[in-house]
Amino acid sequence: MSEIREARLQKANLLIQKGFASYAENFRISHTSQFLVQKFGFLENGEEEDFRVTIAGRVLAKRVMGKIAFFTISDQEGQIQLYLDQRIINLNLEKEKLLTFEDIKEIVDIGDWIGVSGTIKKTNKGELSIKVEKWEMLSKSLKPLPDKWHGLTDIEKRYRQRYLDLIVNPQSKNVFKTRAKCISFIRKWLDNRNFLEIETPILQSEAGGAEARPFITHHNTLDIPLYLRIATELHLKRMVVGGFEKVYELGRIFRNEGISTKHNPEFTSVEIYQAFSNYVDMMDLTEELIKDIVSDACGSLIINYQNQEIDFSKPWSRISMKDIVKKYTSIDFDSFSGDFQAAKQAVKNINVEFSNKVNSIGRLLNEVFEQKVEPQLIEPTFVIDYPIEISPLARPHLDNKGMVQRFELFIVGRELANAFSELIDPVDQRERLQLQQSLRDEGDFEAHCIDEDFLNALEIGMPPTGGLGIGIDRLIMLITNSSSIRDVIPFPLLKPEITSNKNQKLPLNEVK
Questions:
Q1: Residue 156 and residue 259: Cα distance in Å, rounded?
Q2: DSSP structure class, residue 23
Q3: What is the arithmetic mean of pLDDT over 421-443?
Q4: Measured between alpha carbons, how far is 468 from 232 in angstroms, rounded to an integer?
Q5: Domain-located, residue 85
Q6: Which residues, 6+ apart, have CB-to-CB distance to 367 below 8 Å?
Q7: Is 201 in the same domain as 98?
Q8: Residue 330 lies in a domain
């Protein structure tokens, strides 16, 4: 590798000796590869078009055959071939200072960025090409790309060096294009329905809105601890109190938790709040929004995810947590009549393990659901009516004591969305947060803390409101058929790589 790098440095220096830059200041392109392929794909083999084009890209392949060469370059939109003829490139050398055909053979390597100008030609073998008249080096690559036949197969290296992954794995590039388009679609969808996007603080004096452990930092000037937000919920609700009836925020959330194929400590969510609504209204909104996203991104409401067909077009199931647990385990939690010991024994009989933290029938119900039911929910399913113990910010259910008006959406065994009829009673909310604070004081660092300013806002008065949160990364996993959340986050958090040359410093100016 060091020999390759040294040889490429020498080529970069050779360019400078010839009076040309090895790292250009700029380059003006006229078209993209995709535009040219679409516009001139109709040409017959051997046919040419006197259509002038200036294009730039990274060299992915290079074949030199005497006085003719064929390069393949890649830009953001795709790939296109360059047809290089020594006679044509060297024709105008006397009129202006240009790099020669011999220069491109000698100096250009796979991985370099080059810019070219020329016309359109379809080769006798049917490959649409740019017939190059002149070229210039835009950026000299000092290290080779991974082997083009094997791609970048080292999974960890794909995540650590995403730039290499994007160069050699077209599927990865498509994933992030899809991600960007979906995020743009969500914003337009909500904006068109008169929702306003509100920016809430990322640094917060109290981390609330979810059961999660926050990252802690310190503000030097104020000499106070601050937390990276674990949700946008409590600040968006303040906006509803202030009179904004339809608000949302799409942005980054930070939770100091484990890393898995479904979890990254830094992730993206959209939270949506609509006044004068309840959790049924939010179910309708969720189903409509996700169907529209899938249809726009995939061109169909029937998709394949990891060899499983998911049909979004059918009406989505809506079933209570108690009923779906009874369906899959035959345990009827209504039959215990408050007998916690009987409930524990029934749960143990089906081999559900739980900690001492599970100290109520509602928490037991949730444990059974998560372990025995959740992985089996493949088709879109709204699980509704959750235990009050695990839902401190949700409105109590009117007809089902001990439960709240809450749902979660599950697809392919994963939670994708979470929503409530929001709790707007300030007295009830204070009591629940005080209970959460006592759990926190006992060592449960995921429990909610008391946010006095939020409680004060509720006392000013909040209208009936439905709230919804959707995990963007998991949604993109589904749409792009990705098995790991790391495949859809450009730069996922990874354990630092240990290298032998950790403290080695490289010269600042190696190209003379």
A1: 14
A2: B
A3: 94
A4: 11
A5: yes
A6: 347, 352, 354, 358
A7: no
A8: no
